[in-house]
Write the structure tokens for this entry.
Amino acid sequence: MLYTMYEAGYYAASPLRFAARAARDFWSSPLNPAKDSDLGRRIFAGADLFANLTRRYGRPVWNVDSVQIDGKPVRVTQTEVWSSPWVKLTHFSRNMADMRKAGRRDLEPAVLIVAPLSGHYATLLRGTVEAFLQDHEVFITEWSNARDVPLHAGRFDFHDYLDHIREMLRLLGPRPHVVAVCQPGPAVLAAAALMAEDNEDCRPGTMTFMGSPIDARLSPTVTNKLAEEKPFAWFKSNMIDTVPAPYPGLGRRVYPGFVQLYSFMSMNAEKHQDAHKQYLEDLMKGDGDAAEKHLEFYDEYLSVLDLPEEFYLQTVDYVFQSYLLPKGELTHRGRAVQPAKITDIGLLTVEGENDDISGIGQTQAAHTLCSGLPEAFKQDYVQPHVGHYGVFNGRRFREEIYPRVRAFIRKSEAGFEKTRDAANAA
């Protein structure tokens, strides 16, 4: 029913959308002598806003072709290094000739950025990737849109997600560093705990959790309260729908991305209304730069993907209702998940003072769970004056948060070198 209504709304608006596009093209044409008139700008602005609000948004592109390292431009290429039907692991490879020109000759630590599977594409972390590229070999998870995964690919649940994280960490080699942004936190911590217990060579060197619901009982937000107030059956009955034709995932049960988008936007409805109003005014004033920034943000923000039913419902249950990990009740493939088994993996938690999705303390809970970890391996940081997205993107992330993450990883790397030297000497 949800998908039927969504598709019907899109196609019902098609004639108006085509008319709006035609009006937009006419009133922006250099051949139209009235295009810069007050009336022309008003008609163009209204038509452009309507066309953008009613169109479909596909998977965004990264547009990370180069980065500045020590004041030198370094070319970047994207390479798929591993994949399954549910994820593509992308390596942002820096040009080695450019790196030498920038004075970087040594192999730099590998970092796996685990992007959230919660509605948006991994490109939402573009700024995060660009920051880490200054000092690291960067790999990131690009999760698939469930509506594009055929039924014959099978199901994908929380435990499959956890197994994928472990597999990708192994691919990166001994002691890689992992950064979990928001939703992946519990699964990444569970994967690290299992790898630590098995004493795997490829267990993380450090794990950084940014705005993650490790223990969603603490400082509950609107999102947390909704999950608590509604019974589990309500989510299954009201939030899940079947993928229709012509999508490749025809027949798959999913949590639609447009439902998640509505939830995100309804939390800050007035803010989004004001932003679109300002965009309209900028267009009418002819302020192209401000309007372009608005479009860049919403091209990303309005691009959403569907989640497989089993993963979504298990996440609601495990993380937001039963709190299995912080209560010590999470099991994986018949094994108890015990973060206390972690003894030599650096732990950094980052939270935003104004985070309205993962409240203060939810991420810090990882320190309590990792009771076997010496205090020297732990660090916590709360960034003043930022909300959820400011924890991993924006000016304060670049200038205040990322330098702390970089320093933490470097400190850990130095410790590994001493350990290796001592082992070799023995």
In short: The chain has a mean pLDDT of 90.
